[in-house]
Structures are given as C-alpha cells and as structure tokens.
Design a protein that fits this description.
With 181 residues, the chain is an all-alpha fold. The protein is built from eight helices and two strands. The protein has two domains: 9-31 and 72-179, no CATH class; 32-71. The chain has helices spanning 9-29, 38-51, 56-65, 74-82, 93-111, 120-145, 150-158, 161-172, and strands spanning 88-89, 178-179.
C-alpha cells in the first residue's frame, strides 16, 4: 500500500502544522483583536450589514459567518509574530513570505492542494521551501518567547554554523535575507 501514498504530503502537513502553531502562538502571545482600535468599528459594521438583511434566517447565517471578521488573518498573524524576532529582513520580504505561507496553507486547507492549473510538482517544491524556512523561524520564535536573550538568538540566526549551513539557505530559497544591524 505504501506505493499508493502521496510522497509529497509530508511537506504539506509540515507547513499546515507550522502555520497552525504560529496562529496559536499569536492568539496566546499577541492577540488583541478584541481590544484593538479596529474591533468596535468592524463589529459595528457587521451589525449594520446584518441589520440590513430582511430575512431573519439569512441574518442569523450572516452573523455567524462574520462573527470573527474583526480578527487578524493568518497572514497578519504570521507577520505580527515574525516581526517580534530580533532580526530584520529586506524591505517587503517578510510580508511576501507571510502571504505566501498563508496562501499555501489556505490552498492545502481549502482546496486539498494546488488551485487552478498550478502544477503539483511546483506546488510541492514551493510548499517544501516555505515549510523549511518557516520551521527555522518558528523555532526562533519559540526560543525568543521563552526568554533566550535577543542578542544570543540574533547571533545564532546570523553568525553560527547552523545559520550558514541551514538557516540562511532555507531563508534565501523563499526570498528572505537577514539584514545586518
């Protein structure tokens, strides 16, 4: 039966799990969606929209669908978390990376793989590269969160043999380049 299994599923599971980990970390560490300045405005907008729907069944359905409209997207959660790291990247690189990770996770979650006419091997290669880079960054986030000094973490991510042999190549493969302070 092993020959019937998809050999590419591991990288998809890995990216999916890492994205879920960052989302959970954000919810516990940085989430202020209930108290953010935008929350009351978004909630009021939802109420106005739901209130304009005449059918009570449709309004109930819509209210349920929009109940979390004030929460940040996965892309924004990733970006918020990754910006906590004591390193910086080239202009726009982190935002592009967070979007790519969120897009791939959504493809896996909602479409079961690539959408449209994207070739599966291209999808798998991109997913593997994103998962490898996200794995290093998630590990760094956890170390940062438990209190590893920022200077030690930054040096490990920039100057160590692990950085040179594993971290930098993985990050470069997805367009991330650690900037020198």
């Amino acid at each position: 039966m092993a020959s019937l299994r998809n050999p590419h599923v591991y990288s998809e599971d890995r990216l999916f799990t890492l994205a879920a980990g960052i989302e959970a970390l954000h919810r516990k560490w940085l989430d202020d969606s209930e108290s953010s300045p935008q929350a009351p405005e978004v909630k009021a907008r939802v109420q106005r929209i739901v209130g304009s729907v005449p059918d009570s069944r449709d309004a109930k359905w819509l209210r349920k669908r929009l109940a979390r409209a004030h929460e940040p997207s996965l892309e924004n959660r990733m970006l918020d978390c990754l910006r906590q790291l004591p390193i910086s990247f080239g202009k726009g690189e982190l935002a592009r990376f967070a979007k790519a990770c969120a897009d791939r996770r959504n493809d896996i979650s909602h479409a079961g793989g690539p959408r449209g006419d994207m070739d599966y091997s291209v999808f798998h290669q991109e997913t593997s590269r994103l998962a490898e880079a996200l794995d290093h960054l998630f590990h760094a986030l956890l170390l940062h969160k438990i209190g590893l000094p920022a200077d030690v973490l930054a040096e490990t991510l920039t100057k160590s043999w692990v950085a040179e042999r594993q971290v930098h190549p993985a990050l470069a493969a997805v367009g991330l380049h650690i900037q020198k302070p």
